[in-house]
Amino acid sequence: MLSSLLTIAALHWAILLIPGFNFVLIGQLAAGGSRRAALAAVVGMTTGTLAWALLAVAGVGAVFTAHPALRQAAQVAGGLYLLYLAWELLRGSGAVPVADSASMGARQALRAGFVTSALNPKIALFYGSVFATALPAQPSAWHVAAAVAMVYANSWLWHGFLAFALSQAGVQRAYLRHCRLLTRCSALLVGAFGLRLIATAVQELRAR
Question: Is 138 left (phi over 0), alpha (psi -120 to 50) or beta?
């Protein structure tokens, strides 16, 4: 049991440490002066992570593999939502005062964190493949529960750490000096993540 959990943990941390949309969103909120909103986004992200981990255990990853159209539809929806967030960032980057750069409230941040995780079916495929590879053929209920709880805790540890680290006064001062530029860069990154999701789904459809 311990060896399989360690394998899952190692694979999960390898993915967590790769900067992605979650890093951009937390950094934008935390460095912009709103640790509360950043932590709310973390709650949303980790809730989405937990939901996908539970669904992966239930076999949804296998369903996405058998019916790729469902996964592709979810990818397109997730990509469109990221493009919407990127547009909102760009629209506000020139008008939001430097002292109020973190304009997203806690409720909005929680929703953004959850929706972007919920609309990313690659999370389900990742958990499904990792659980299928690392867990024994017939794991006990406790073994499965421990695996799900561990990836949930890992997600909380990493994203919570980012929220606190990036909301330190020195980081915030550096952010506020270059608020508009960094907001535009964040918008471009978020938009790039969204376009990549959509482009991947379109390429898969064309290859069929």
Answer: beta
Extract the tokens encoding 150.
């561990």
Q: Are 8 and 77 in contact (CB under 8 A)?
A: no
CA dihedral 138, 141, 143, 147 (to 10 degrees): 110
CA distance 109 to 130: 29
Structural domain including 59 reads 2-207
CB 54 within 8 A of CB 141: no
Note the pLDDT tens digit of each residue in 48-105. 989 988 887 777 656 666 777 877 887 788 788 778 878 877 776 544 333 333 457 8
CB atoms within 10 A of CB 199: 12
Number of domains in the chain: 1
Task: Fill in the DSSP letter of residue 197.
Answer: H
Query: Among all chains, which residue has been given the structure tokens 């058998």?
Result: 66
Q: Give the global pTM.
A: 0.71
CA angle 102, 104, 108 (to 5 degrees): 155
* Contact assessment for residue 55 and residue 124, using Cβ atoms and an 8 Å cutoff: yes
